[in-house]
Amino acid sequence: MNRREMLTLPAVALVARQGFAQVAPISQSSSQPTGQHVSHKVLLKYSRPKAIAKVPKSAAKTTKYLNSLNTLLGLTSSQQQQASTIFTAAATAHTVIRTNLKAARQSLTTAIMNNDSGGIGQASMAIGSLTAQLTAAGANANAAFFQILTTDQKNRLSLTQFKS
């Protein structure tokens, strides 16, 4: 084991323990439908500070995330449909933006290889703008989802998500 691993392993263990300690009591609430399982891993992933602007990347991940939210919050069928629409639209927007971001990074690489300072500046600005668009699209999706929840559901979700 090298020095870096020896230093990071205890920190990772501590963070994981704290994350599960925050999520576990919520999933055992009496409002949870019986026979369903809350995926602690999924909820932990989307409860990190940077997760406010994140959305699941694929349809399978969206389904898994929505199932965990449904189990945690007890979403109605209407809320489930609205959430699915919100996160699917956000994932589609992310795909388009990521494609453009890939092209901008390739342009930056080309500008670097050609020692083109103007091209480097333009590509860097494009990358910054596209990164901001990714963040905004994810944050807007999470804001739209938060608005379809009842007050009780918002309180339960706030205990696991949207912490800075």
What does this structure look like?
The chain is mainly alpha-helical and 164 residues long. The chain has one domain (3-160). Helices cover 76% and strands 0% of the residues. Mean pLDDT is 78; it is low at 23-35.
Features:
6 helices, 164 residues, single chain
Task: Draw up the topology in text.
Blueprint: H1 3-27, H2 40-45, H3 59-73, H4 77-113, H5 117-147, H6 151-160
Q: What percentage of the residues does DSSP assign to strands (E)?
A: under 5%
Question: Which structural class fits the helix and strand makeup?
Answer: mainly alpha
Taking all Cα atoms into account, the compactness measure Rg is 20 Å
Mean pLDDT metric: 78
The number of distinct structural domains comes to 1
Straight-line distance between termini = 33 Å
What is the count of DSSP helices, taking H or I runs of 4+ residues? 6
- The total count of strands amounts to 0
Write down the overall geometry: elongated
Main β-sheet description: none
Q: List SSEs in N-to-C order.
A: HHHHHH
What percent of the residues sit in helical stretches (DSSP H or I)? over 70%
Which segments are poorly predicted (pLDDT under 50) over 5 or more consecutive residues? 23-35
